[in-house]
Amino acid sequence: MGKKIVIIGGVAAGPKAACHAKRLMPDAEITIVDQDSLISYGGCGIPYYVSGDVSDEDELRKTSFHMTRDEKFFLDAKGVMVRTRTRALAIDRGRKCVEVEDLAGGGKDSLPYDKLVIATGSQPFVLPIPGADLEGVYTISDLHKAIAIKKKLAQGEVGRAVVIGGGAIGLEMAEAFADLWGAETSVLEFMPQVLPRLIDAPFAAMLQHHMRQHGVNIHTGEGALRIEADANGKVCRVVTPKRTIDTDLVVMSAGVRPRTQLAKEAGLLVSPLGIVVNNRLQTSDPDIYAAGDCIETTNLITGKKFFAPMGSLANREGRVVGDNLAGIHSVFPGVVGSFIMKAFESCVGATGLSLEAARAEGFDADASLTAPSDRAHFFPSETKMPMQLVFDRKSRRVLGMQAFGAMSDALLARIDAAAALIGKGGTIDDFSLLEMAYAPPFATAIDALNAAANVADNMACGRQRNVTVKDFLDWMDSPESRPGWVALDVRHAKEVAPFTEKFGARWLGIPYNEVRRRQAEIPRDKTLIIICDAGTRSYEVQVFLDSTGSTDTLVLGGGFNIISRLGVDWWPKK
Amino acid sequence: MGKKIVIIGGVAAGPKAACHAKRLMPDAEITIVDQDSLISYGGCGIPYYVSGDVSDEDELRKTSFHMTRDEKFFLDAKGVMVRTRTRALAIDRGRKCVEVEDLAGGGKDSLPYDKLVIATGSQPFVLPIPGADLEGVYTISDLHKAIAIKKKLAQGEVGRAVVIGGGAIGLEMAEAFADLWGAETSVLEFMPQVLPRLIDAPFAAMLQHHMRQHGVNIHTGEGALRIEADANGKVCRVVTPKRTIDTDLVVMSAGVRPRTQLAKEAGLLVSPLGIVVNNRLQTSDPDIYAAGDCIETTNLITGKKFFAPMGSLANREGRVVGDNLAGIHSVFPGVVGSFIMKAFESCVGATGLSLEAARAEGFDADASLTAPSDRAHFFPSETKMPMQLVFDRKSRRVLGMQAFGAMSDALLARIDAAAALIGKGGTIDDFSLLEMAYAPPFATAIDALNAAANVADNMACGRQRNVTVKDFLDWMDSPESRPGWVALDVRHAKEVAPFTEKFGARWLGIPYNEVRRRQAEIPRDKTLIIICDAGTRSYEVQVFLDSTGSTDTLVLGGGFNIISRLGVDWWPKK
Q1: Are residues A261 and A213 in the same domain?
Q2: pTM recorded for the entire structure
């Protein structure tokens, strides 16, 4: 008989490690224990199950060839033993065994191991507010809760829903409630924007506006103070410092924490970010590996440890653990941090660091905000894809990228390519030359990502100077705050007219191709905010004006293709 | 007054170099000369203009903000002088001037330069066959020819069309003729497959089958012997060794050659692959740069020189030339070779080397053929995306990737990410861990590209042994050729039944999850071809059988998801 391997946790990293190890060591005796009755499910699919895109919860547990991944499947097909409803109580590292309890029968047992894998995942963070434990308040932490939520929806019991937490899962759940089920849905996010730290303010604002247009009430900078119940003890409202929201259901998605108690109690090295592992995913006990949401990992950009709870990473880590269990030297170097998210007809994604995160990490960071086409502008399905490359001005290293666009895989393509290069330490120049595949139905000759890098190059070299979106919006709201500013709008005269009409002397229109000829009309005693649709014409005008000695100019990066997606109230009516 | 810069060629690399240089050196005096009257157009858009996706040829000449890129536009907006219908006759390097002829007026002129850029592009290769110069035989080499073709289509003069050459442009033109215009369209490709050298046989076969299903007659291994005319001298048929095809129009797209005559006559170093340049795109004369289709470039995988005529590269090269003209040290290191192409409801793409090309280059290459899902299998719009990673067995370096899938940007995402990593020397392990963004609407938790790398890992380590598609198809066509082979079909019993019924003793069905229990039924005196839908179950069965000592097995990589796309005639009727 081969090695005895015990794996604690049966959702993503655990089964992946188990099955890969079994294939590498067919004589190994591998046992997965999990306290749940349902294992090996696609947890990231829960919002799509709740929304109705996925009709049956069983679909989330099936292989692509339509077999349900239950205990029998693992035994028959994989040769891996699974003990569900079995809780790991303690790890006895001296005797090399795991004490487990059968939650159904109540019996206790001791499972000896040669190698142990901890894949205990994460647990939802439950806000310490009154009412958090009421009936009708759910976390999205396992399939049972998803089933309960969908049952309530299907029975017509959810006319209103509140989501506490504007992270990806919270927003996906909000879409699920609002879209198919038509529930009056509100999202509360304590931070000033949704997806805090993941994306920067302009991208969060575009996403928020889009979701609001689809009927989701998004309240940022506003946390839940308490959740209240009706006379029957069922949830009925959420109270914030600003309002009271009646609701039939509350989803609490305020983030997750690594589930590390077992590891801690066993004396393994554990940080607040998770179980400490080396790059082979070995814990401080060489016979014990850990993978998935319960570990801390390395950020490949900052070199620092961080917490990256994602199903895709858990699977990749599981394979690395499987290799190492079998004596194959396999390494998990760390994480760049990629994500993508559907939101109604749009999607948003990012990889690496946001500008805010990069500056907080001490980088001399800036960001090139652009609004390139996702495919040839003459191709019928073309749309704009606001995008931002975050870079370090000194080293020219690209630190991150984010984008917002129409729902398609166009944005995915740029995120994935950027993630690949950022993981390899790619610079602005690497991005400028990155060989994106081109044909008009798929891309532009200078791909969106190349174009974003070219703008970053112009900025890093000091050739392009931008106004921030925030400063521009502040000025539009309070012109008196910056009395020396004037807009130089270089779009077509027809496009500019409603703006000059509404904003008078603050708004000067000279079409891009007439600037050289009409430069005498351009005031030299004002700060010019140069505006077009995507920022490219504005940059060219800035460079030209520099050559004439008129250097007090700022480009609105990404132009009105960004601003028009923010839902500003000053936009001239047609 | 600043530097005098002359640029020969006004389509892609030339204008890009000109405009970028002008922005970097506002006082430079920059002149583009081009023998054509139409410049700066998106040549890759021609098939979409012919198909009707793009209604007006002017769209191909417009910026994304709807200005036509003509002489006036370049002068007014860019500050760049353009002389159209002006042919460069000779470069006098001693006097540093270009002799030009005004094709309209007939006058000659001499343009002095401090720096010169040659961006003369490529010229179509016209097969030396009788009738190649007949009326009605077109190359796709400029906008005028495209306009002429579309006019004929619009006037109803093209009921039948023949395309000579099964490269990307030829196939795109074939789709244009067949799709909107309903022309009876035939493609002749002299090589045994379309897109020769770019993709391997199984992918070419999937593409050919798809295009045939959409009514395009594709004849491979069949060249045109001659083109014949009717009594009026207009083209009326194409003759091959196998058939005569009546036609109203012939497109000759048999590849292009670098246009290097001017450079050669000026005594610059020129190879058969194009004008020789260093990595700053400087020719053998340091005052002369060259970019675009007319240069030879470096293949980043083989390190060898090659010819890569693509509009996207021309633009990237143009920017590098612009930098260097302005004294900014900027480098164009070379090319991986990415492409993507729409074909009706499908698309095909590749980056790096095909398996055939990699072996021809002397690599110890193999390829992992897979058929992964493009997004979560439980997500409604999921489809399979046959994919192949080409790798070197010794170094584990990934040399190339190709894929065929439904028309969307899903395939683009994997091509672009793969190109980014291949350009950085990525290994199988890099691909296995590549951080593809994941959410169910966009990807699988183990992304298609990660999965392809995992299979490559299994193959490189000798854990997975495949049968080639060719060998499998040969055996299906001539079972007697390999009497020792038996199919072990591990799909669901219901799926296998029609096959066991049709193929009798050659076809053994044991569902994947029953193999461990029923291993006694598996013959040990035969070579087992293990078959499933995607190859993953087959691999697991192979590994299990290895552990039982039954090692004479081969996996059908990618499984029936590949074979079912080939249009084989032996598929059992339902």
Answers
A1: no
A2: 0.96
